[in-house]
Specification:
Structural class: alpha/beta
Radius of gyration: 46 Å
CATH superfamily of the largest domain: ABC-type transport auxiliary lipoprotein component
Distance between the termini: 200 Å
Strand content: 15-25%
Helix content: 25-40%
């Protein structure tokens, strides 16, 4: 009977509260079960699982939203199309790239010199292949020659100049400039080293990943310009045909010599009787 009395008392209080919401002064205070009543506590208890359920659903929805990773390629600029189909024959390669660049991750150089993986970007393909293609197109355009090929060349290709390149550093950071460290060598038709140089280039950027990749591409374009400038003096040198070795004449077979007869004189005198 006591529980029934409590229920009826609560219902009476609830009815009075509803009447206050409907016929009160118009100011909304609280339209529900009376605060502090037994039914109010029971409703709060029932609301708790619902709140937890909604929180879990929203959490799963947040986890399911995946930000797409940006893919980057080196910017080769706007190289023109070479017009001469019989221009200078250039063999580009081998081109070696540092081991730490042999990955898809876009690396970030920190102020203390360390490298960290970029959380919002990676290379769209093989970085070494992108470097080869960028340098190939830049050299072909600057030398105006369709005869610029990547190593290894076909058997019947005789280069006028061979470019051997080693890239030991190509990176940047949000607060660090793009840096390129490399060494190139130029070999003539005989395979002799005609020129060699160590290169250190820097390029500033705005800080974003896209700006960093663009700056790295500009460094490679500057490298190609430097190499093409060094190639031209070598290509102007006349090509000397190798001198043919004199053909050794076959020695005639020694013929047997017949001694010639010659009179023999002696001091003996012949006496006749």
């Amino acid at each position: 009977m006591e529980s029934w009395r409590i229920f009826t008392d609560d219902m009476g209080s609830w009815g009075a509260s509803v009447a206050q919401c409907l016929h009160g002064s118009g100011k909304y205070l609280y339209c529900g079960f009376p605060r502090g009543s037994h039914l109010d506590g029971m409703m709060n208890f029932l609301r708790l699982p619902l709140v937890l359920l909604m929180t879990g659903v929203l959490g799963l929805a947040g986890c399911s939203v995946h930000q797409p990773t940006a893919l980057y390629q080196l910017d080769s600029g706007e190289p023109g199309q070479p017009k001469q189909s019989s221009g200078l024959a250039v063999l580009l390669g081998p081109v070696s790239v540092a081991d730490y660049l042999q990955r898809e991750t876009l690396l970030q150089r920190q102020p203390d010199g360390t490298l960290t993986a970029s959380p919002d970007g990676r290379w769209a393909g093989n970085l070494s292949s992108d470097i080869d293609q960028l340098l190939l197109r830049q050299l072909a355009w600057k030398l105006d020659s369709q005869r610029v090929v990547l190593a290894p060349a076909v058997a019947n290709f005789s280069p006028d100049v061979q470019v051997v390149l080693s890239i030991t550093r190509l990176d940047s950071g949000a607060k660090q400039p793009a840096v390129l460290d490399a060494q190139w060598r130029l070999l003539d038709r005989k395979g002799h080293v005609r020129d060699s140089r160590l290169v250190h280039l820097e390029q500033v950027h705005a800080g974003s990943s896209a700006d960093q990749v663009k700056a790295q591409g500009m460094l490679l374009q500057r490298l190609a310009d430097q190499v093409s400038t060094a190639i031209k003096p070598i290509s102007w040198q006349p090509f000397e045909e190798p001198k043919k070795a004199p053909v050794a004449r076959a020695k005639e077979a020694d013929k047997p010599r017949i001694p010639m007869a010659s009179p023999i004189r002696t001091d003996l005198e012949v006496f006749r009787f």
